Structure formats: C-alpha cells, structure tokens
Amino acid sequence: MSYVPHTREEVKEMLKAIGVSSIEDLFADISEDLRAKSFSLPEGKSEFEVKEHLERLSQKNNSFLISFLGAGFYDHYIPAVVDALVSRSEFYTAYTPYQAECSQGILQTIYEYQTAICALTDMDVANASLYDGGTALFEALMMAFRITGRNKVIIDGGLNPLYQKMLFTYTANLPLEIIKLPPQVGQVERETLYQHLDEKTVAVVLQNPNFFGTIDDYTDIVEQAHSVGALVIVSVYPIALGLIKTPGEMGVDIVTGEGQSLGLPLSFGGPYLGFLACKKQFVRKMPGRVVGATVDKEGKRGFVLTLQTREQHIRRQKATSNICTNAALCALRALIFLSVLGKTGFIELAKLNYDKSEFAKTVLKKIPGVEVLNTPTFNEFTVRISEDANEVVRKMLTKRFVPGLPLGKFFKDMNNYLLITVTEKRKKEEILRFAEALNDAINL
Amino acid sequence: MQLIFEKSVEGKRGIKIPRSDVPEAGEIPKGYQRVKAPSLPEVSELDVVRHFTRLSRLNFSIDANFYPLGSCTMKYNPKFTEQIAGLSGFSGLHPFLPFLSEDLVQGALEVIYETERLLGEITGMDAFTLEPLAGAHGELTGLLLITAFHKYHGQPKRYVIVPDSSHGTNPASAAICGYEVIIIPSDKDGCMDFKKYKERLNDEVAAVMLTCPNTLGLFNPHIKEIADLAHKAGALMYYDGANLNAIMGKIRPGDVGFDVVHLNLHKTFATPHGGGGPGAGPVGVKKELASFLPVPRVIKKDEKFVLEENLPHSIGSIAPFYGNFGVILKAYAYILLLGKSGLISVSEHAVLNANYIRARLKDYYHLPYDRICMHECVFSAVKQAKNGVHAIDIAKYLIDMGFHPPTMYFPTIVKEALMIEPTETESKQTLDQFIEAMIEIARLAEENPQMIKDAPTTTPVKRLDEVKAARNPDLRWKGE
Q1: Dihedrals φ, ψ of A33, to 5°?
Q2: What are phi and psi of A91, to 5 degrees?
Q3: Pick from A254, A313, A332, A369: CA 20 to 30 A from residue B254's CA?
Q4: Residues A70, A380: contact at Cβ < 8 Å?
Q5: Do B110 and A30 touch (CB under 8 A)?
Q6: B127, B273: one domain
Q7: Which CATH number belongs to the domain containing residue A286 in this structure?
Q8: CATH code of the domain containing B154
C-alpha cells in the first residue's frame, strides 16, 4: 500500500525541474558509509490483510467482562454524538492553530473547553490541555516551584501511586526534596501533614477523592499551607465534581486531573487528557497552550493562541514547559461530552454513580469476610477481605467479573484489599450477581 | 460565532441520564458537597451537533487543504488506521487489566511488542519504549535516560549542546531535566558550526541533541564526526526524530552514532495531529541504555507477553501506562500497510516534493541555503519585505488562496523564514497550484503590496489583535 500519488511521468518532470536525473541524486549528501546497514521490514500488505491481523489481535483481548475496575481510569458511557463529532476530519486532521484566521474552529473549542474546566473546578483560568493527569500534576509542581522559589514538596499518600511514581521519575535530577506521607485509606491525617509543612514548602499535593475513594474537604489544609506561604495542588476526578465540594470552593491554588472520564475511551492507557486550572494571579506561570478571546481589525470577536512568550517555541530553555503537541482532540471530546450532558445531566450522572456505589457498598457489607473501609466516598471504595485479593481476583475472573484493583500491587500490607468502582454502567442485577460471586469466592 | 455557553437556555437538555435501578442513596454528607452547580451549557443534542459541525468548518485541515507546515509533517492520515483504532477489543480495554492477569490483554501487548521491534529496525536502535506521549515528552524521557546513564557510570554532567537551528523543545526539555544549554551557531552551509562545536564540547556535556536533517531541511554530512567527537568526550548523541520522514531506508540514526532517538508517530507514521494532539513520541536507545528504560516493559516469556516492572536501573515511569496506545495502534497499522518499500518510497517522494518546490520558487524568493534539501525547504521573504510584505503577510494571503501557510519565522536563524514541508502524499498538481500561488504573491509584492497586507479577507475573522489578547487575557467566558 502506498499513499504516494505520483505517476512515473510526473516524477521525471519533477526531477527535470530540479535538475537531477534520479531520486537517488537527491540523497547524494549521504555518503556510502552513512547508509542504512539494514532495513529488514516486512513488505506492505493490503488493508484487508492488515485489518484481519488486527481484528485477530483485538480478539485476543478480553473486553467482555463485567468490570468494577477504576482506580483513576473509568468506564463511563460515551454518547454517540461525541465520536460522531470528533470524527470530523476538519478537526482531527488540523494541527495546532498557529494561523488563527483559518483555525477559528479549533481555537473556539479550546476557549470553550477552558471555560468548561473552570466551571467544573471553580477556578479562574485553565490551559488548553496537557498529556494526562500525571504529567499535568508534574507541570503543576514545576509551576509551584517557579512561583514560590522554594524546594520542599509534600505528597499525600492518598495520591494515585502511578502519579507518585511519575513525580519521582521527573524530579529525580532536580533540587527538590519530596516528602511522601504514608498511604492512608481514609481522610488525610492533618497532624502528620502539618509536621512537615513549613516556610520551605513549595506545595502540598493532594487528591480528591483520594486513590482509595475517600472524599475530603481540604479547606483547612489550604489555610494552613497559605499561612506559611505554601501552595496547594489538588488532583481531581472530574465526574465527582458534579457532587463534591470543588477545589475552587476550598481555595486551592492549582487543580489538575485526568480528563479520560469525560468522554474518552479507556484505550489501554491513552490517549488521555490532562487538565490544569489555577488562580488568575498565576496565569503567566502556566505551562502549555492557552487560547484567548480578542477582536479582529473590524472589531469582531475571534480567538488566538496567547501568552505565547511563556512557551518553548519563543522562550526556548527559559520556557515554563517543554510541551508542544498536547491533547487538543481529547479536550474537544471532553467539551462535547460536557455540552451534551449539560449542567443538569452532569450532576445527575454524578448522582447516579454515587447511588450505584452506595448500593454496592450496602450489598457487599453483608458478605461475611468483607469490610468496607472508607466513607464518605463517591463511586469507588476500598474493602478488606478475609482472603488474598489476588486469589479472589483469579476466581472472579473465571466468572467473568473484574472485581476491582488488588491493592497489594502497590502497597505492602494491603494484600487483601480491593479497590472497587461502580460507575453508572453497572446494573443493579450485575451488582447483585457480583456480590454473590464475591461471597462464593471468599466463603466457599 | 456564538459560544456554546451563549446558546444555553435554562432547563434545556441534551442526553438524558437513564433512570436509576437502585435505591436513592441520599446526599453526600454535609460539608463535602458542591455548593454551586457548574455553569455548563444547557442545550439540545442537535444544538451540540450543529455547533461543533459549524465550528469544524472554520478550520483548515489536511483533508480539505494543502498544509505545508514545516517541521510538522502534515501528510495524509489514512482513514483505514482510524478504523483500526476504533476496534472495540482495543478501545474498551482498561489499562489496569494486566495488573490482574496478562492473559486478558495478549493482543494489546503484542501490538506494543511488535511496534517496538519495527521502530527499532527503522531507526537502528536496540530497544524502544512507547511510553512517551508526544515528541517533547520523548525528548524529556530521552534526557532522563541519558542522565541515568551518566549517573550510573559515576559521571553526572551539566550541559546539553543544541544548535541554534534546533526546535524550541530541545533546549526547553534540557532545562526541565536540570541541564544548562550550550547553543552552537550554524555555519554558512546551514549546519552546526563544526569548529565552534569542537571548541565548546567538554567532558561535562551530557548530550548533543541534533535534528537530522535539521530544521533547514539540510543533511549534515559530518554527522559521524560529530558523534565520534561527542563519544570521545563522554557525551551521548540524541536524535530528534521530527524529521525522520526524510530518511527512512536511507540512513538510520543508530548506524551513524546516535544513542537515543525519539520519533513523532503523528508526523512520520501518519497518525492525525488532532488540532494539536494527541501524538506519541516513542524513544529508542542503544543497548547500553536499555536497562534504564521506563517501566513497565513488555517482554515475551514462553510465547506469552508479560509486563516487567522490576528493573532496578529503570528511570521509573513517565506515563501512567504504556503510552498513547490508540495512537500506537494507528502507526503500527500504517507500518504494516506500507512495509519496507512503502516506507522507503515515503522518504524518497517527500524529498522529491520539497526539492521540486525549492527549485521552482528559488527565482522568486531568497533561498538562504541554496543546495539540495531533504523533506523541507526554507525560504526567506527578505526580497518581499523591502516592499513591506513580510512572511506573515505572505502566510495570510496564502490562506485566502486556500492553502495553509508554511511555518513562518522558524528556524529563527533565517530572517523572514518560510519553512515549507510538502510531504510525500501531495500530488504534482497540488504542488503546482501552490507554486503558482507563491509566484503570484511575489508578483503582487512588487506591484500591489497593500493587497497582500490586507489579507486574509475570505476568513471568518480578519487579522486578530494578538497584543490585546496577551495584554488583557480573556481566557474563558464569564457570562454576559
């Protein structure tokens, strides 16, 4: 298969215009000793053959399970309209809107997306998107580092362990001291946190609901942090924000999150969507693209990439971030998802998740050997079971249930803990059957 | 056009949430509740469809316009690969599933494993990670690997060398990784000045980051000597793969001394740019660096694909999971479709197209480096600027003629730069139309410069006030 459209005749004419006799002449600068030593790839195949191959591979995956797995990445229903609209190639085959006049479509959607993220989080400003929730958190940390000029970071143990690992990887060579608090299924232990909080602290990094599902109100932590001049960064689960107190209401300085739950497929880990919002006094320290409204020379409203003097293509090594390509199409998905749900639909969706999860808790609590550990929660919670979680997982998989995430993978001493997620997609009947199967797995 | 928020009518509904089949649980405990409802739009589904359909029509895109944006490789994105990424056996896959059992995701792990091998062969590298989520993210990953390598050998270093023609992401990534940046000027041939490079190279240099061919679209024939000197000084060679589209099958970074490469799947391997992402920026390394690659690694054990988490020298994790899998799938399908001859043909015709434009326009526009180029050519509008017609004016007039403009004012070492990358998927007819348009602009710049300076006139908005946008940032809608 080839997408090169030239006829042989055309190639000849073009070579003539260039003044060379063969295509190989164009590569004359590459001397023999620099030439590829090998290029042993399979020959091309037809669409039909490649499709058959990939269909076969896709069938080697098991996606027909009843899943109670979440842990930061969620199986929510994606309305058909989301896929239909992002499939418009006027969106997906464009690039970063450097030329504003012929990119008003993308630019306006980003401006609307920024507005929607501010609405969800109750923050002043948001950027145009980052790669994912983890890199967004790292960018937020770098931002706080620049704002405060300090060097000590406190990371709560309730932060997603994947993000903790990413933060450690990224900061390994930077002059930062990272204090990591122990994992805590319930709410943040204020006293432990405050012991570390001082005038050297850049920021406190928290998550809400935390990795174990617990909801918290961080207003008091924000006050304490601000009293020593430290910032507070919170990573949030956007669907939960339909019900739970927002970072803006708590006075948080920088908010990040994984936007996958807003209309993006799980897709085995990406592409996802990192969002970042902050208070307006920090706007010029933000990483990444930002779109602003302005007027054209006739006074008509239009949109442009703005505050570009923060960015790598202008500031190079002094930029606020190295990011260039971000996640524009994923941001568009989120915007369409939020638009079609609307204000009421979004809150109802959150409530439905909460109701289903609470129902599941009630049912699971009745199983001997199952203990629900945390409250309040949104749509996921942690249970301790009387058996090894991996063993229970194995038994449950044979009954086609994915019973949640066994936490022993991340935390020692948690080998019999499961993190269970219940989204709106789980039917009552499935929850009841799940409870039955879990009972069998533990007690039979 | 009105914003979706401005179309909002109180009480209007789009998608209806299904009725609950479980008992109502009451409210979230007091003190933890959201106080004020989020001000999301209240619109019908058709309102949403019309809004975004109309917005899409305000964009130029590859599917509707020639898009010769230099350094971005805006080639045709096959419809076929889009379809592949939508297969439900891939798109619905939860990334934590292999943590429960790798048996559940054998197909997906095979895609990752095979793609890593194919990219390794294309670039001449020994091992690949697909974790990096975009090109700049690949650069950062590559530099973290390089840092780990030097630390492991007990020789932590301080500097990263980049030429002045480099992408802005190179020095920015180096800075984020904690390095100081040494910038080497270009010589009269447009390549990194070899003499100055030698002068600045020292044993505290961690890496030399090069784009090859460089952002002027020029191949540096001294690449091997640069690499040899770097290695002698204890530095590693980093290959910015943004311009790989020029050289597939001709030269492999791994064969000429590069130790680390990143690729942009959304450039060379035809995955769509999405209006600014998502992309993917896989990183390949020589075997000396393989043990530092981020985890988890996909390995093959007794004919089964498994995840390896415990690699003691690994830098850790740079993405939550295995990379932008949806993008990787498309690139994998693209490589299988084109195969060996197809990929070689890609580079040959990308270079042919760029040289054709170069040859046909050089009588009309100043060509600062007049030699055979690779996949892109960089002109300067200095001749036209004498009449007050600048690169930006030419760009805007091209929009009126239905072409997306080239990259302008980059690389910064060329005054009034216009960087044109046609890609291999554009036909001679399209190139001829573009060339005619550029010749027409050159003529108008002499005869009627004002006409160009008034452009664009056919777009939904005229030239926008960027100074106002930056001075008084209006970054979200705040109501009437």
Answers
A1: -70, -10
A2: -85, -55
A3: A313
A4: yes
A5: no
A6: yes
A7: 3.40.640.10
A8: 3.40.640.10
Burial class (CB in 10 A: 0-12, 13-18, 19+), B9: exposed
- Tokens 């270079």 correspond to B351
Place of tokens 């990445």: A73
Whole domain around residue A197: which residue ranges? 80-337
Whether B147 and chain A come into contact, CB under 8 Å, resolves to yes
Please list every residue in chain B whose beta carbon sits closer than 8 Å to the beta carbon of residue A59. Answer: 89, 107
B99: contact with A, CB 8 A cutoff: yes
Please check whether residues A328 and A426 belong to one and the same domain: no
Strands B205-211 and B236-241: parallel
Determine contact, residues A302/B130, Cβ cutoff 8 Å: no
Structure tokens at B330: 């498309």
The answer to whether residues A265 and A309 belong to one domain is: yes
Would you say residue B267 lies in a domain?
yes
Q: Distance between CA A179 and CA A18 in Å, rounded? A: 62
Q: Is the pLDDT of residue B76 over 90?
A: yes
Q: Are A173 and B410 a contacting pair at CB < 8 A?
A: no
pLDDT (tens digit per residue) in A139-173: 999 999 999 999 999 999 999 999 999 999 999 98
Give the model confidence (pLDDT) of B168-192 as tens digits: 999 999 999 999 999 999 999 899 9
Interatomic CA distance for residues B409 and A354, integer angstroms: 52
On whether both B315 and B407 belong to a single domain, the answer is no
Residue B112 in any domain: the answer is: yes
Cα dihedral angle (B61, B63, B65, B67), rounded to 10 degrees?
Answer: 60
User: Domain boundary at B337, B362, B390, which?
Assistant: B337
